[in-house]
Amino acid sequence: MTEHAGKNFPRPTQESQPYWDGCRNGELLLQRCSGCGEHQFYPRMMCCHCNSEALAWVRASGHGTVASYTVVRRPVSQAYAADTPYIVALIALAEGPTMMSNVIGCDAADISIGMPVEVTFEQWSEQMTVPKFRPRGA
Ligand SMILES: [Zn+2]
Fold first, then answer.
1. 34 in a domain, yes or no?
2. Global confidence as pTM
3. Is 4 inside a domain boundary?
4. C-alpha dist (Å) from residue 32 to 14, 54, 59, 63, 129
5. Which of 16, 49, 78, 113 is 20 to 30 A from residue 57's alpha carbon, by CA?
6. Measured in angstroms, how far is the CA atom of residue 6 from the centroid of ligand 1?
7. In the chain, how many H helices and how many E strands?
8. Distance CA 7, CA 111 (A)
9. Which CATH number goes with the domain that contains 54?
10. How far is the CA of 93 from the centre of ligand 1 (A)?
11. Are residues 19 and 25 in contact, defined by beta-carbon separation less than 8 angstroms?
12. 99 found inside a domain
């Protein structure tokens, strides 16, 4: 477990708790609509495509590509200073939704749009594990 004191911890809600439980178990879960078959992220009460409430949690492949990114060189607070430079990216998941995360295990000079990535998990506390992405096959 690495040091995360002072960082912004996610706050699970009733809708997102299954997602965070999945992360804690090393599984990236998405909601899939039984009405239209689309996946969605972030977790919601209704399908963002067809408004159906028939949503089920399914395990995602964990694969995606970098849709966009930025390299953070100036930390937002001292809690993030040791992490700089770090990569904040939009990941286009294979299932369709886009997720904001960090790309780790990749030098800031080597990241590119379209880079294939896969999910990995970082345990921040006993209760909180967060998904990150790394270059696929690295
Ligand atoms: Zn739907």
1. yes
2. 0.93
3. no
4. 17, 8, 10, 16, 22
5. 113
6. 38
7. 1, 8
8. 24
9. 2.40.50.840
10. 17
11. no
12. yes
Q: What spacing in Å lies between the alpha carbon of 46 and ligand 1's midpoint?
A: 8
Domain span at 115: 17-135
Distance 54 CA to ligand 1 centre (A): 8
* Residue-wise pLDDT tens digits, 24-58: 999 999 999 999 999 999 999 999 999 999 999 99
Question: What would you report as the CA-atom Rg of the chain, rounded to the nearest whole angstrom?
Answer: 16
47 CA to centre of ligand 1 in angstroms: 5
pLDDT at 1: 43
Number of domains in the chain: 1
In a domain, 9, yes or no: no
- The separation between the first and the last C-alpha atoms of the chain, rounded to the nearest angstrom, is 21
Q: Among candidates 100, 137, 105, 101, which has minimal Cα distance to 118?
A: 137
* Token pair recorded at residue 52: 């159906």
Q: How far is the CA of 16 from the centre of ligand 1 (A)?
A: 18
